[in-house]
Amino acid sequence: MKKQEDIQKLGLIIQEYAVVIDMLKAEMKKVIVGQQTMVDRLLIGLLSNGHVLLEGVPGLAKTLTIKSLAAAINAPFSRIQFTPDLLPADIVGTMIYNQQRNEFLVRKGPIFSNFILADEINRAPAKVQSALLEAMQEKQVTIGDNTYPLSEPFLVLATQNPLEQEGTYPLPEAQADRFMLKVVVSYPDKKDEQLIIRQQVQSLAMPTINQVANISDILQIRSIVKQVYLDEKIEQYIIDIVFATRFPDQYGLNKLKSLISYGVSPRASIHLAMAAKAYAFMEKRAYVLPEDIKAIAKDVLRHRIGLTYEAEAENVTTERIVEDILKAVKVP
């Protein structure tokens, strides 16, 4: 068991480095009105080395949020607009023949950045999605005979538009599983909407995002996040939540058996633990509480649970299933 003094020491280090996250949030707040959950989940993904899938209608500042975060860290940023005619080479790069030198040269694609915005990922065919998701998983790209590592931090923020389904290619379950979090972005409330109008109508120019951190700060914080204490009881709690999606009848959730076609993968357990550590860090704590697991459970699990036809006929959502599981599983 980790000594109490170690946790206290780590707590002091976290207090020191959490200031960087506070500064990032303050800088992003200059241009992002509301959408605090989206900003927090994006930072959790960044600190725990996980990619984020955002689902929301157009105009909810999804693109602006990641651009602002990249500017605040002064990290290379690429925006890839996914379209049905996109090719894998448009993302990863290709070999180009140079006549003067009589040789093939590598032209690297936009994937070679720290922050990637994959806009409307469900508009591109499966081959293109696979090229991106392979880079996300392996953190490297193969062009011709050579393999090129991607620089850290490497964060992919993919967006999906839930409205238009014509001409779209929904992400296969195995590929969606590679995203640590799936965040459903909702409309702003009335007060925030009013602020958005004022900001756009009255301001002569958008506020400038200043650099308040650098890549080495983020990599340092990542190493601290890994040290956040995860008690054995919390580990067991994560395992119980995950197993309840696979064998709901073992947790007194017989009604869910006919609604779930398949439960979540072991990657969900890893991502739940990693995201909970990042969440605890952002709360300036050196240890994970059951409340941290509950706070991020929907974002980690919603895209990993398979629904049966019966569930879809009854309009049962994965969010509701996660809620039922969190109520049923014993909290340590």
CATH superfamily of the largest domain: P-loop containing nucleotide triphosphate hydrolases
Radius of gyration: 21 Å
Order of helices and strands: HHEHEHEEEHEEEHEHHHHEHHEHH
Determine the CATH topology of the largest domain: Rossmann fold
**Helical residue percent band:** 40-55%
Overall structural class, as computed from helix and strand content, comes to alpha/beta
Segments where pLDDT lies below 50 for 5+ residues?
none
Individual helix count: 14
> What's the story with the biggest beta sheet?
5 strands, parallel
Summarize the entry for a quick read.
The protein is α/β, with parallel strands linked by helices. 49% of the residues lie in helices and 15% in strands. It has 2 domains: 20-216, P-loop containing nucleotide triphosphate hydrolases (Rossmann fold); 228-328, Helicase, Ruva Protein, domain 3.
Describe the structure.
By secondary structure, the chain is of the alpha/beta class. The protein folds into two domains: 20-216, P-loop containing nucleotide triphosphate hydrolases (Rossmann fold, 3-Layer(aba) Sandwich), CATH 3.40.50; 228-328, Orthogonal Bundle (Helicase, Ruva Protein, domain 3), CATH 1.10.8. 49% of the residues lie in helices and 15% in strands. It contains 14 helices and eleven strands. It has helices spanning 4-29, 36-47, 62-73, 88-92, 126-138, 173-176, 190-202, 215-227, 232-246, 254-257, 266-282, 290-301, 309-313, 318-328, and strands at 52-55, 77-81, 93-98, 103-108, 115-119, 140-143, 146-149, 155-160, 181-184, 260-262, 306-307. A five-stranded parallel β-sheet has the order 2-5-8-1-9. A two-stranded antiparallel sheet has the order 3-4. The chain has a two-stranded antiparallel ribbon with strand order 6-7. A hairpin with a 2-residue loop joins strand 6 (140-143) and strand 7. The two termini are 17 Å apart. The mean pLDDT is 85.
